[in-house]
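Subject: Sanity check before I submit

Could someone independently write out the structure tokens for this chain? I want to compare against mine line by line before I put it in a report. The sequence has 96 residues.
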Amino acid sequence: MGIPVGVDGLDIAHLERVFERERPRFLVVTSNFQNPTGRTLPLAARRQLLEAARAAHVPVVENDAYGELRYEGEPLRPSSYWTRTAAPSCSAASPR
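---
Independent answer below. Compare away.
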């Protein structure tokens, strides 16, 4: 199930409605360079997402396969950095 994505990231109000209506077992989010938009979830949106998931008791799995591909600016820390509970993070390994 998809959640609408805008300039400022995921539509948190829509996400909260989905949490209430569907009661998902977990949420997978691509915070950096989301496909197909290529957008990176801003820090404020990451915190809102984690708060909404915490309130709904929905674990978050962060797909950070593209986190190391930033061409400019400082990389944002994974979402697990901003929560006291563990938020698993997946990243792609590349051959060197």
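---
OP: Matches mine. For the report I'm noting this point. The helical segments are 12-22, 43-56.
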